[in-house]
Design a protein that fits this description.
The complex is a heterotetramer, with 2 copies of chain A (322 residues) and 2 copies of chain B (405 residues). Helix content of chain A is 39%, strand content 24%. Chain A contains 12 helices and 16 strands. Chain B has 405 residues and is an alpha/beta fold. Chain B has 2 domains: 51 residues, no CATH class; 322 residues, Rossmann fold, CATH 3.40.50. Helix content of chain B is 41%, strand content 8%. Chain B is built from 15 helices and 8 strands. Chain B has a 6-stranded parallel beta sheet with strand order 2-1-3-4-8-7, sandwiched between helices. A two-stranded antiparallel ribbon of chain B has the order 5-6. The longest helix of chain B has 27 residues. The chains are: A alpha/beta (322), B alpha/beta (405). Chains in contact: A-B, A-C, A-D, B-C, B-D, C-D. At the B-C interface, loops of B face helix 5, strand 16, helix 11 and helix 12 of C. The structure holds thiamine diphosphate (2 copies) and magnesium ion (MG) (2 copies). The site of one magnesium ion has 6 residues of chain D, from strand 5.
Chain lengths: 322, 405, 322, 405
């Protein structure tokens, strides 16, 4: 147990799984699988496991994504780290091959594969291609692939263990804006389940649902609202596919008020699915949805920061609901 | 145009039947004499490598001949089902004409043993020949292609997704593009885990234009992957000649540009194909990296065949007049039919004294009966249960029905 | 005016626009732009406009999609027809370049571009890659691109004119299962607006919302329900981006009951967005969602036809709601 | 390691200033003598083509020199802003060292006139040099890079998305892969409408590995497109040498394999670059199809630079020790610095009697002042209005705000 950064926690999990399984491979492009943490040994997968198992490739994210799929099909557990610039280049092969292959082969295809896909964390200043946060919706619609999106170093490690041990292919979204988070993370391996949301705060007046990069702002807002006397229940989706409907329905069954918060574009943001699932199951719910507008993020920090949902937006939307 | 119409009429006068493996070849006999030598396909000169095949046991050589026959008769029998059996629902992307390619390549591979030791084959949208050559169970494959619950893939995949990892047949892929890249990933993993396995991908000439072609060859070369890329250049992709989307006469030249050993072989001659494959496999197992094999070949039938076809209509399944009139010259097809892989392989066995002519012909009857039996078994298999469609999305459990609201 | 097939109606529009604009180009791969119709001249864009403007390419849908974008940026109106097998290969360039470019250049990029993208029509027998109907959701989440999905030959022609005349890039989804529909279609050019849903039947008990390949089943079900005495309002979304919220909200404001029907996968199907928009604006709505399960389509017709939403499913779901 | 640390210290002792275009070059002077000839970059032999440039007017030649200086001083001034002005927010992917490539290529293009007649340039994530060479307005570009409402793109795009179609600068693209394919689409449209325009794409060596490389070259060749692919091979993509992802010494060989005329030039010599480009443009305008130009070059600075950098820390902006220690040998950088494109172009002008040495140096002062003025103007421009972020999604109107729920 020690205070660990996000990346250190994640690479601890990867390192452990690679030590357990001498066939496991890791493919990267820009980001060497190296992490250090105060008081802990440096993790460097490339030097520890050698360049046959840990490969640095050219700028070809489709090859990276397809190669780990092929590795998995040949019986080797395999993972790759796709930088945010190439976040949707692997989309087609995941959507059209990986997601469908198990069913299409009547269960014969084996795909112990993890795609770690960076999300930008909606950094201001870079515009469109370098600031967007839309991957969650796209990957989440794909059947046959589990899509997870941790929001804390603890979950990041536990979900990585679970993803690498799962026989199902997993899209592991990494909201890179959270890279500066640190928290107490056990040294030992442990799993966070691939199908359970987390209730981050309990309350009975209002349910707020978010995930990934949206969580810090939501938690900040929830503290403010709580200080005001509002009973806020905060749910971190954590796994987008399959979505944990029970936790959502139980919470809103109690609060009857639902606020979803996404950094993804409004139309078909994950919150749309949350709302649809809840109102199919609970009557008389009042809902609101906070999201990024249906516009590519502009570069100008003035424009961008105004558009990106923040704690203040959440506080105001919550007050409007309750 | 006139000629084709006349032929069509002639074809439709013949009742489709499985009496002869070559009933669709009869036309060739009429016009064969007219095919000039100059129109015959020319192949890049190949080094004399027949020693590989010449060293094989009689048994292995006979096996190759039997495999070719199985592929041919599977198809012939299936085409007859499509034409005559109104209950039959399977479709196929026909492989007839190309049998020697799959057969020659797979004969050079390790096809049984534990999964971690056998060689893996990635196939295309035209998979049944590759599957049979790799050694899948034919009756269950036939059942799969007719959507049966006891089919090779439980009726979930049908033709374009047949798969049987137990013999290293990773499977068909209906998409043009991704399979070679994914296959290179298998080769990558084999090398990473120190295995001497080989990954093979069969891909048509159409795959050349896909951007994945570059990724596959570039990474195979850079990482010295044990990958064998078998380009089945049957000159056309669906409706267009390959030269309309490829600047090379030999697609192998494109691969050679990456520094990958690349060879062009006569895809009608199973011995040439085997020799090239054996060479490639030896190199890959020795850690010497990838090989590109371009097999020049030809498909006899339409791009694909579907149930409910009517004999003679749209050429089902002799010629495809749509394709021929717009793209494939009739005489080109006829010329290729005279270099039939079945005939060539039989002639080699007889020539090498491996088999008497009569024994070879008896063998064909045997195979024909075996395939017929496979169809009889397969078409009596149970259909799928609707609710099972919710299974196999993930490794465990089933997803929820959503069509009821 | 004459009875016209879908493809004839569409190519009439394309032919007209190409006659008007000598710079306009069309790129195809498998499907030659040829259509005939009883009593009408054959349309063949390739012979009429020549092989410099109408190009048959190799199997490289990303080139096709990117090339028309480049053509548009250079000032030439341009369209391409992507077969369903490659339906999501253009996804990345549309999502990450075309959709973002206008905003990222502060309005300077000009993109008079149309991607006609085939959807399979969910044909039984082909499984996963050849039977899926998921494109609607993926394309619909993209900002900066208009996504339309006609369900009749009349709309197909009018939306094609509107798409080709629009300065915005348009994803024009073509549910190929509807290719057999014919109806009276004017010979003259006309536009169907790129942002308006169509009310196909009026009623006050229940609103049913669907689009594209889902429409025939919905209309059939609506006739049955009407014969039973139910007041059904049927809305054909027609444009997924931007979605016509007003028409939806007005209708459900009246009926208070909403049934969405999609052939797309349940999670984040277009219906999820319909439901979310409606319940954000109307209180006390009862909702149900009919969709394809979150499973790739299996080949077996027994499995597939049971899973694909049909008229009977719609009738029963509607009865359960009212 | 030691050496680098020592250099870093030395660098941080020097207050950053814009006094000298080459203050980051000083290091080279210390060690230059140690660089052996064998370590200097070798270039494929190029045909003598200097006649093109030699035929140019004095004015045009001086213009090229001025363009090189503008690019260099834009960067030098911006780097100083990053190091000293805490209010400054712009970032940049530095182009210093590569100036002759953009300059030589764009000098061969048609850069003004109606949009339907000018040549179009597609740039990369490293766009400012290309933009200046193509003729964008520098003050508004500077304003754009600092997110100003009156910037070239209204503050919407900033560095990686600068665009000004009015001079044919279609724009930057932060992604590796798509730009060349899209550029080939412009070339396709030009050919379709019978225009004699040319489309040019600048792409780094990193683009070679992207699958789009294949699509671009294959289609350019098949359709004989008026496309000029300028590969700026600065030996590295971000953190890795190009030979780790490319089997060719000259990336031009990869293009030649498609049958595309391909040439490798010294990217530090504006005349060599211009000549190759002129040849390519002539061919394209004559309907003779695409050309691939590989310019061997080098970037002096880090992969990119951001505001708030501290002089000497992480080499801002002399060397990038992170990059150097892992990837770029220090001596390689120093060797390249001795073949500085500014020096080479000035030497040519003086040698050809176009300009006196002193006049050339005076010109540099002039340009320096002009750029300083551009920054002064730009950094006094208004910031963007938040609500404007909802505009320009579609050609008309604005989308709705959604962040308020
Ligand atoms: C991405 C993609 N685009 C289009 C298709 C449609 N398609 C199926 S087979 C085929 C032609 C393939 O030609 P080739 O690779 O030469 O194989 P052949 O059919 O000749 O065996 C095409 C275009 C597809 N399957 N995938
Ligand atoms: C698809 C994609 N993947 C990764 C990146 C991150 N990235 C930005 S620049 C760059 C290196 C490009 O190298 P090169 O093409 O040689 O250009 P240079 O930086 O040397 O000018 C990379 C990998 C990206 N922009 N796009
Ligand atoms: Mg072919
Ligand atoms: Mg580079």
């Amino acid at each position: 147990m020690a205070q660990k950064s996000w990346m250190y926690a994640v690479l601890e999990a990867v390192q452990h799984e690679m030590q357990q399984d001498p066939a496991m491979t890791w493919i990267f492009e820009l980001t060497p699988p190296v992490a250090s943490n105060p008081g802990k040994p440096v993790i460097n997968l490339e030097t520890e496991f050698g360049r046959k198992r840990v490969v640095n490739t050219g700028i070809d994210e489709n090859w990276m994504a397809s190669a780990v799929l092929g590795a998995g099909l040949s019986g080797s557990k395999s993972a790759t780290y796709i930088p945010y610039q190439g976040a949707l280049i692997p989309f087609e092969v995941i959507q059209n091959v990986a997601g469908k292959l198990r069913l299409m082969t009547g269960g014969k295809a084996s795909m112990p594969v993890v795609w770690v896909i960076e999300m930008t964390g909606q950094t201001p200043g870079f515009a469109g291609q370098h600031s967007c946060y839309e991957e969650d919706s796209y990957y989440m619609h794909i059947p046959g692939v589990r899509t997870v999106i941790p929001s804390t170093p603890y979950d990041a490690k536990g979900l990585m263990h679970a993803a690498l041990r799962s026989p199902d292919p997993v899209v592991y979204l990494y909201p890179a804006g959270l890279r500066t988070l640190t928290e107490e993370v056990p040294d030992e391996p442990y799993e966070v389940p691939l199908n359970k949301a987390a209730v981050r705060m309990e309350g009975s007046d209002l349910t707020i649902v978010s995930s990934g990069g949206g969580m810090p702002g939501v938690l900040e807002a929830a503290e403010t609202l709580k200080a005001d006397g509002m009973g806020v229940e905060v749910i971190d989706l954590r796994t987008l596919k399959e979505m944990d409907t029970d936790t959502l329905v139980n919470s809103v069954g109690k609060t009857k008020r639902l606020l979803t918060v996404d950094q993804s574009y409004y139309t078909l943001c994950p919150g749309a699915e949350v709302i649809a699932r809840v109102v199919e199951n609970v009557d008389g719910v009042k809902v609101k949805r906070v999201a990024f507008p249906d516009a590519p993020p502009p570069a100008s920090p003035e424009m961008f920061l105004w558009m990106r949902p923040d704690a203040q937006n959440v506080v105001e939307a919550a007050r409007g609901l309750v | 145009m006139k000629d084709i119409d006349r032929n069509l009429v002639r074809m439709s006068e013949e009742a489709p039947s499985s009496d002869s493996r070559r009933n669709f070849l009869k036309l060739a006999a009429f016009t064969g004499a007219a095919v000039s030598v100059a129109r015959r396909p020319a192949f890049a000169v190949q080094k004399e490598m027949t020693f590989f095949a010449k060293d094989l046991s009689d048994e292995k050589l006979i096996d190759m001949y039997r495999t070719i026959l199985k592929i041919r008769w599977h198809e012939r029998t299936q085409a007859d089902e499509m034409l005559t059996n109104t209950e039959y629902r399977g479709y196929n992307h026909f492989y007839a004409g190309q049998e020697a390619v799959a057969t020659g390549v797979c004969a050079a591979l390790r096809n049984d043993g534990p999964f971690e030791q056998i060689d893996l084959v990635y196939s295309s949208h035209r998979p049944s020949g590759h599957a049979i050559a790799k050694g899948v169970d034919i009756p269950t494959m036939v059942a799969e292609m007719d959507f049966r619950a006891t089919g090779m893939n439980g009726g979930y995949g049908a033709e374009m997704h047949i798969s049987d990892p137990s013999v290293g047949f990773i499977g068909a892929d209906g998409m043009i593009g991704p399979a070679p890249v994914i296959a290179s990933g298998s080769a990558f993993a084999m090398r990473a885990r120190g295995s001497d396995q080989v990954a093979v991908v069969f891909a048509g000439d159409g795959n050349y234009a896909a951007p994945h072609f570059h990724s596959t060859l570039n990474n195979a070369r850079l990482l010295d992957l044990p990958l064998i890329y078998v380009c089945e250049n049957n000159l056309y992709h669906q409706y267009a000649h390959y030269r309309l989307s490829c600047p090379h006469d030999d697609i192998a030249s494109a691969a050679a540009a990456y520094g990958i050993p690349a060879v062009t072989v006569d895809g009608q001659d199973v011995v040439q194909v085997y020799n090239a494959a054996k060479d490639a496999v030896d190199r890959a197992r020795a850690g010497e990296g990838p090989t590109f094999i371009e097999a020049k070949t030809y498909r006899y039938y339409n791009h694909w065949g579907a149930p409910g076809a009517e004999a003679g209509k749209l050429g089902a399944f002799g010629y495809d007049p749509l394709a021929i009139t717009s793209f494939r010259p009739e005489r080109e097809l006829r010329a290729w039919m005279q270099r039939d892989p079945v005939d060539i392989s039989r002639a080699i066995l007889v020539d090498w004294g491996v088999l008497e002519e009569q024994a070879a012909l008896d063998m064909e009857d045997e195979i024909k009966a075996e395939i017929r039996e496979a169809f009889d078994w397969a078409l009596a298999q149970p259909l799928c249960k609707p609710e099972d469609g919710l299974k196999h999305v993930f490794a465990e459990g089933a997803v929820a029905a959503r069509q009821f609201g």
